[in-house]
Amino acid sequence: MSRFDADKLIDATGPAVDLPIAVGHRPGVVVHLEAAHEAMQKMRGLTLDSHAEPAPVFRPDEQT
Amino acid sequence: MSAAEITTAVTSGETTALSVTEATLARIAERNGALNAFTDITAERALAKAAAVDAAIASGEDPGPLAGVPFAVKNLFDIEGVTTRAGSRINRDLPPASSDATLIANLEAAGAVLVGALNMGEYAYDFTGENAHDGASVNPHDLSRMSGGSSGGAGSAVAGGLVPLALGSDTNGSIRVPSSFCGIFGLKPTYGRLSRSGSFPFVASLDHLGPFARSVADLALAYDVMQGADQSDPAQTPRPVERCSDRIDAGATGLRIARLGDYFTKGAGEAALSALDAVSAALDVTRDIALSHAGEVRSAAYLITMAESGALHRETLKTRADDYDQDVRDRLLAGALLPAEWVVTAQKVRRAFAQEMVEVFRKVDVLLAPATPCTAPKLGEKWLNLGGDPVPLRPNIGVFTQPISAIGLPVVAVPVWPKGSALPIGIQVIAPPWREDLALRVARHLERLGTVASPMAGGS
Questions:
Q1: Which residue of chain B is at minimal alpha-carbon distance from A15?
Q2: DSSP 8-class letter at B237
Q3: Tens digits of per-residue pLDDT, B418-454?
Q4: Residue B239 contacts A, CB cutoff 8 Å
Q5: DSSP-based helix, strand, coil % in chain B, nearest 5
Q6: Taking the model in full, what pTM does it have?
Q7: Which end of chain B is more exposed for a tag (fewer CB within 10 A), N or C?
């Protein structure tokens, strides 16, 4: 797996979604993107099948 | 006096709502300079409301179950005529709110008296109670320490005895963390239980509102009157009003209670483990349950929080980035750039964990876990010792609260004073969805046993 490169994400996505990151803001944004990537890697360990539903409208007592 | 005692005294004519309000305003004037809990004091409105409560009593009307009880709200709640700053500099340029948040209206309909708005972490993205614009609200038990966030002013105001009742919000732990650090009771109800209408949002998928108090009875009293359908909140789940006040004294006999082990004890410090032991011993709890995916669901909450708050603030980030607290700004910017797949996966993980918990709650009625890994850190502290590892303090204070709010379970944070500790720490009493009554009942039982307590800082 290639190393996550937060700078690449900032350079590609920022201008593309019209949210360029100022030079002075970049170091902090990099730290937080790396933390987000780490969180994502933690979730990659879970097996979610193709039918797994997301929970954007959430019902805490919903049963399988 | 507690909220319940104030109501009794006001209703019986032993005192008046006006006297209580004037005394409250005097105490706020005396102590807020040291605590920095309040950002707005609504004295004129409070005195008018108190006079109306007294007039209702004089004319023989029922003044409501919270007659004359002063309360304050985190400054992300709309208060008519006050600008809803949500802990920010940017929102101060908004016009004043044109009406009250639903929960304020519900409390005032029950006779309570709003006295002001409370300090908070910027846009609720905080666990410390520090604020780059308004200064930190501080811990009344040790003024050199954090109140906890993001509802820091609420923790500070209630523990300091400025008000007996306050409202806050909890997205990842912002009611339970200040409750833990300030030694008070806090209720985070089930996701979708109480209306969020008229509160400034943070993360729509995870935002909850709830009360703080220094007794379980006060918590239940406030919770009871705040329930009810509100068409203006699309996230509210249709539920009947399920009042708890008359059920909290049922004791804990017959309830199956277990502790959350593994993830929830690995990073816990000495005070947190000692408090958990004390509560477990009081309830005769010996069973530990390990949740296999608590770490993953915390990661899910972390990403959902970044993405939704980044999206919420995107336009303002483009035009006023330097008006944010630097750390909040950088997290919001990063959140606005996250790949969609990460966020969708996070929502799937969240749902899978909620289903795992439905199975757990077939075997137990109530779960216990520390609210925070440590007691209140010193103001300005940046690092936290988590199970022997130094980690950044600000995002990690909520390590034990985040997995629980991620799936919307109701929790009462109860304050324990571990042996040898001058500071309190909270334990989460966690119940199945919609069973706030069970969490309140166990909290009340612990309060009666004397295992948990919320003494006013600096005495009465």
A1: B337
A2: P
A3: 988 899 999 999 999 999 999 999 999 999 999 999 9
A4: no
A5: 45, 15, 40
A6: 0.96
A7: C
